[in-house]
Design goal:
The structure is a homodimer. By secondary structure, chain A is α/β, with parallel strands linked by helices. Chain A has 13 helices and 15 strands. Chain A has helices spanning 14-21, 42-55, 57-61, 70-84, 99-110, 125-132, 150-159, 182-192, 250-264, 269-281, 284-309, 335-344, 374-387, and strands at residues 28-29, 93-96, 116-120, 137-141, 143-144, 147-148, 163-168, 199-202, 227-232, 244-247, 315-316, 324-328, 347-348, 350-351, 364-368. Chain A starts with 13 loop residues before the first helix and ends with a helix.
Chain lengths: 388, 388
């Protein structure tokens, strides 16, 4: 059997292989990007599902419209305004099977073999993998803790042929936890509006801010329909439902819908209707405040433990939100080698090199602080310190 | 903005556009492929979901393994043996977001631009659309009501370069309702085993047989791991959960899992665990017998109404199972034109030409008989007769 050319560009995610190792009960894992399961509003979700399957079983269990359940699309549009200052109508929303599906469709919509994707450096590993199925070339935009550097972006846009997509995560980025400053957001928009290239603003973490002032989404600053936005209920409700969305101009959404039709027809109706019910009845904003409180505390506990147990030469990011922080080890230290030792000491993380599509940066690593309870975080960082 | 080359090959499915028209309450629709909603075991599903979300909320709502929920994979493997005589282990099953996703992944795994897909003539419209995203060329294997013609298949395999996939629906095909005879199945296997080309056996309807003897799946006749099988719970339980599977050699399943990881990480866990619970507790086989009974009766009512109300020159297939039957109009009659008139008379169907990837056959059409109650079927065919 002959496989497609794209298969030679794809490899199993290290995070995924790691997650298998980390199923051992004695393992402390800072590797995944999982929310705290004890905070899932499971009773609310159970009750929502019960309502939907009692009151509207024929709609919840039948084939449905590709774009998504209309009342849910409307509610997502209204939340996009409340949370991300982006004024949208329901027809500008496509419900997806998790925001990962939005990444896949974005690659499918814009990329041909050899197309160039500009991305942050580092960037989200699973986005790299999603786009790789379409065989693009990645160019990393020089990035610091304030965001991508606008003058470098401009230079790339002027000098590079065949750029088809700019992919960015301005809020509490995966993997670094860093957010773009207001100044960088403005400068970014000033640069990109002069080019006819779509920008994917991937924003799974924007609502999980623990300190500092809320900053506007790129989409809210967009005057010409250039920004496409992917969002998700995975971090604010639960990932297991696989419920996300793409927000964009209605013309673009119609193209995404065409792709979704061929890919999986539509997202499960029962879960869409359940989330719709929850948005009507549940105090989601109160729930998000609770998540913010717990995750802020876990971040602080992890940062304190890092200061206490890790060598002084290790630098940590100080994320104002999201689920991750980023360590930079002294030059010459290799995080992949460190991981092998640290797995033997029953603590897991993701080596940072995986987040750079063109390689390098092997002295970095990503830590998740949302999943583990306080005492486990401290013990995990202590073990990591032992290994270092 | 520049879109990918593949976008110029994709167009909205006519079925889908039709479904929008058919939302008008006065419309009788034989256009979709929907199961009868009044037969959904909704109380069983509600109770299964309730159990899962009460007893295992943290697993049901968290991120999970890409391949699917292990107990469900095992159960699907056992059902594949009981129902399709294919002996498989759980690791040979990948749970997908509907079997449509299995079609998309199959295109992604095997097809490059210009690759050749051999398919039946006609074949399933949404499979054509799924594969088109990978820009193949379709060659239709000459097909009659007994299945594809083995000698024609052999000739194509010998004379055509760059064939990467053979796509077939041997049981109660969409759109014709026809099934392959035992003789044709054997002859097909005799031909394909001499070529190193994968065969996708798409089998959403196999369990919905209303008469005649059960015939073995191609997969059960495969000695060399050449057959890949897509199955679904959409027709035997409910489509709204989007729960299907791919069955194949474990090595191939690992490649599908790699694709699924980039496409949507995994299928919703709550729905997977709910179906698993249902398979443990519910008499699914008894439920399927009920579906068979109702759908057999609806098929007969539709065939009787066709005999009564449609002109004698119209030929109808006599499906032994599945959801569809196929009309051949006299030469020169055009089903697309007929549809325009018939929508004005409030009855909808799908013109058959859409099911031929290379066009033609405009004097054919597909009718669904599973969705509408008895009296509605009779009235719809009466209206169609009026239009003709």
């Amino acid at each position: 059997m002959q496989f497609s050319n794209r298969m030679s560009h794809l490899k199993a995610s290290e995070i995924r292989d790691l997650l298998k190792l980390t199923e051992r009960p004695e393992m402390i894992s800072f590797a995944g990007g999982m929310p705290a399961p004890e905070l899932f509003p499971s009773e609310v979700i159970r009750s929502g599902m019960n309502t939907v399957l009692s009151e509207k079983p024929e709609a919840a269990l039948q084939y449905a419209c590709t774009e998504g359940y209309s009342p849910l699309r409307e509610k997502i549009a209204r939340r996009m305004e409340a949370k991300f200052s982006a004024r949208l109508s329901g027809e500008q929303i496509l419900v997806t099977s998790g925001s990962q599906q939005g990444l896949d469709f974005t690659g499918r919509l814009f990329l041909d073999e050899g197309s160039v994707v500009l991305c942050e450096s580092p960037t989200y590993l699973a986005a790299i993998n999603a786009f790789r199925a379409y065989m693009p070339r990645f160019i990393e935009i020089p990035t610091d803790s304030d965001g991508v550097k606008p003058e470098c972006l401009e230079k790339l846009l002027l000098e590079t042929d065949n750029i088809r997509l700019i992919y960015v995560i301005p809020d509490f980025q995966n993997p670094t936890g860093n957010s773009w400053t207001m100044e960088r957001r403005k400068a970014f928009m000033d640069v990109i509006r002069r080019f006819d290239i779509p920008v994917l603003e991937d924003n799974p973490y924007g609502e999980l801010r623990y300190e500092g002032e809320r900053l506007p989404s790129l989409m809210s600053m967009d005057k010409k329909g250039q920004i496409i936005f992917t969002g998700t209920f995975s971090k604010i409700l639960c990932p297991g439902f696989r419920l996300g969305w793409v927000a964009a101009d209605a013309d673009i959404i119609r193209k995404y819908a065409l792709l979704k039709q061929g890919a999986d027809l539509h997202t499960a109706m029962a879960t869409q209707m359940c989330i719709n019910d929850i948005l009507e009845k549940f105090d989601l904003e109160g729930h998000i405040r609770k998540l913010q409180q717990v995750y802020r505390s876990r971040r602080d506990i992890m940062l304190d433990a890092i200061a206490k147990y890790l060598p002084d030469q290790v630098q940590a990011s100080h994320p104002q939100g999201g689920l991750f922080l980023w360590l930079t080890l002294p030059d010459g230290m290799n995080a992949r080698e460190l991981l092998e030792k640290s797995l033997r000491n029953n603590v897991a993380f993701v080596p940072g090199g995986s987040f750079f599509p063109n390689g390098g940066h092997e002295n970095t690593l990503r830590l998740n602080y949302s999943y583990s309870p306080d005492a486990v975080i401290v013990e995990g960082i202590r073990r990591l310190g032992e290994v270092m």
